[in-house]
Design goal:
Length: 331
Amino acid sequence: MKVAVVGGGSWGTALSVHCARAGHEVVLWAREPEVVEGVNRERRNPLFLPEVTLPPGLTAEGDVAQAVSAAEVVFFVVPVQFARGVLREMKAALPVQAVLVSASKGIEVASLSRMDEVVAQELGLEPERFVALSGPTFAREVAAGLPAAAVLAGRSPSSLRMLQEAFSTPSFRLYRSADVVGVELAGALKNVIAIAGGMATGLGLGHNALAALLTRGLHEIARLGVRLGGQPETFRGLAGMGDLVLTCTGALSRNRAVGERLGRGEPLEQVLSGREVAEGVPTARAAAALARKNQVEMPITFAVEAILDQRLSPREAVTALMTRSLKEELE
Ligand SMILES: NC(=O)c1ccc[n+]([C@@H]2O[C@H](COP(=O)([O-])OP(=O)(O)OC[C@H]3O[C@@H](n4cnc5c(N)ncnc54)[C@H](O)[C@@H]3O)[C@@H](O)[C@H]2O)c1
Ligand SMILES: O=P(O)(O)OC[C@H](O)CO
């Protein structure tokens, strides 16, 4: 198939490698001219996953409209806060039959929208042409061809089956789901809990605290997710528990790393000064706003928001969380 991958960061690069290895013809759009040049001339992305040699069947393009103009499938992998602008640039060139697979994990702060909502607002696609891809997938491991599983969520069973068959390989196993809302929210909200998990590690709170945080984090993710229309089972699946475990405990997580550095006492500006994106930072604010709007209790998310807003220190947040009023576990 003709595939466009929009977004030349780590995940866009890894997905391009995966798609090319699966036998598809891939055009990768990258915003940085040095990435386009490096991919086309040296078969590597100099900024993101520079250690990976890119397979044949993959070229890069600096004009997003040109990149998507012949695509049957577009993987959209732009960080959520920048997504709207890129969607506008590619809108006119997107072929009418193309399916858009969003692989970004976050909530837009300005509108409190999920990616399926942002795409609908900007492109006006029929719902069957939108699919979300989520799950425990560190880009570096996927690019290395290590085994991974993820979920495709969409409203058209035929599109889901087509994508599942075209993009599953012996090292990348795709499942189907009809729960777009649940899969999108699970993937976005786990990034916030991963920041908290990293903080617990940075503060040296031990394994018990991390396990408690992860469990209670999943509980509050599901509470908001179900209130907004997600299916409860989705939060126990690959996009929910699977990705939460990976991101809270895996050394490759950028969100976890942000939390760990804050927990160790590094200043926020220094922690956020790198090139890579930690979606949990803006999404903490969006998730907390959505929770307040829908009167959903999300104490860990509220604590992460307060720390990022510098209203609370990580140590004060631990005390605040541990001394809340006592509850039923399943409340
Ligand atoms: N890296 C992973 O392992 C992984 C896995 C699954 C999902 N994701 C998701 O994929 C999405 C992309 O993350 P990534 O890891 O590929 O990014 P990255 O952190 O590796 O790279 C940052 C990306 O942001 C882009 N960017 C920066 N400023 C921009 C702007 N003003 N306008 C448009 N783009 C801009 C850069 O060009 C680059 O592509 C995120 O939503 C992330 O949560 C990442
Ligand atoms: O590195 P992170 O924290 O953005 O996590 C990457 C992926 O979402 C893991 O599935």
